[in-house]
Amino acid sequence: MAKMSREELVQEIIQTVYDCAPEMEGVELSEETVINTDTNIDSMGMTLIICRLEANLDVKIPHKEWDSLLTLGDVVNAFYSRME
User: Fold this and answer.
1) Which residue among 40, 55, 56, 84 sits deepest, i.e. has the most Cβ atoms within 10 Å of its Cβ?
2) pLDDT tens digit string along 63-82?
3) Are 32 and 70 in contact (CB under 8 A)?
4) Which among 45, 57, 59 has a CA at the least distance from the CA of 17?
5) What pTM was estimated for this model as a whole?
């Protein structure tokens, strides 16, 4: 997969959140969105989102870093920095 632009990646991650948490559909998400407090997505939901992104983007995020992914922007940065 060719490297996406940052904006394309943001849109891909937002769509994945909507796919994994359909109750979020229509809620405006941005890079400043704090995932667990602004969206009520719990740790299991976050695990599903990260695993789906890893599979779709063919990028692995070390598990020890998952706890530091607090905002949507943190997730974008983690994936974007590892894409070729």
Assistant:
1) 56
2) 999 999 999 999 999 999 99
3) no
4) 45
5) 0.91
